[in-house]
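Throughout our pipeline, every protein is held as a single compact record rather than as scattered files. The remainder of this section carries one protein's record, kept here as part of the documentation.

===
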Amino acid sequence: MNSRLVIVNILRWFIVLLFQILLLRNLNFYNLANPFVYILFLLLLPFSTPNLLLYLIAFITGLTMDAFYDTLGVHTAACVTLVFVRILFISVSVSRDNFDEPEPTLGNMGFKWFLLYATLCTFAHHLVLFLLETFRITEFSYTLVRCLLSSVFTLFLLILIEFIFYSRKAR
């Protein structure tokens, strides 16, 4: 990874986490849909990032969110799960030998691929997050509804941000 890419990702980390903490932390709709846009940082990390570093970055990101949300490891576990799903999905869908693109953005990979990628990772993140937050089997249906609605809301914001900040690659 070159130094420019490292600096861009560090800035992206600060901006996305500040946006989440300062603006989206208290935004929820009837306690059913909470947006967690900070996962965009984990989704957009370059393909060439080693897996161990991905897990470490996810752990630090989740720990930072736990500090501001007063949750004891819930975001950390969800971020590590997201990175696990990301690694599995990328290993299945993209050949490691010829990475033409440096990072999995909407403009680089196309709408269908990015939508499937973001949907799987977001749903895995939210499922772990809300199941660990509730931690009751009696509220499973409520937790699943929260997970689905929050995933849809988060995906909408992720796609919107991608459309705003990333242009389509000229092919």
